[in-house]
Amino acid sequence: MGRIYLFFAKFQPKLSCRYRLYQECLYDIAVTHSPRYLIDMELAKGRSIFDKIGLTYDVLRASENPIKPFINYYRSIAKRGEEPWWMEGVEPSKVTVSLWSHLSLKEQRELRCQAMARFPEIFGRSSQKYQRLATWLVARHGIVDASLRDRFSAGGQVNISLKGKLYQKIPKIFEYLFKDYENVLKVIHDLSLEDAEHYWKLLHTISTDEKSKLWADQVMHYVKDHSVATQALVRQLLE
Hints:
two-stranded antiparallel sheet, two-stranded antiparallel ribbon, elongated, 12 helices, alpha+beta, 8 strands
């Protein structure tokens, strides 16, 4: 495998030249219209972006999925609610940001299912429960919404009948879960293990067989602050 060197020359006020291995000069990644490496010809040994992700440049460029280590690294250092949008982001053909209200009803339904599968905290009662979802919508789909909470809670409380029992005064979001439960399970089934661990904020590796149960456990964790009727409905639905 060949090696790449960077050569730098400064002609004024006095000629000065430097050269160095390409991978030893790349200290981070920045984004303009697309991701690019940042270069520092005086970068100290052990401080390159490849040292940060724990892989050599030669190993990375020969891998089948060279972007994955970067996703893992930037996720690991991201602040709460941040998402590395340029890594998993919008389709290459999509160059505009869309409003949720401009989506078709079918698209809205699909995104709700994706949200309920990835962000179980939206079933809780925290005032910040939609923050990660809002960031993900922008990062992955180029969609913004100033009234995101209303997309899941508008309509107040509803009554839901399940297995012959009527549950009253249930928050609207659980009606969406009730109606699209099978579709949500399909999203969970299709999630990669890495994504499941990331979105559910798990601190351990998991297996494919565990995904549905771990998601259900998270949902029940956030539902515990709701009414007894809501807890009973969700427990019955998840059984």
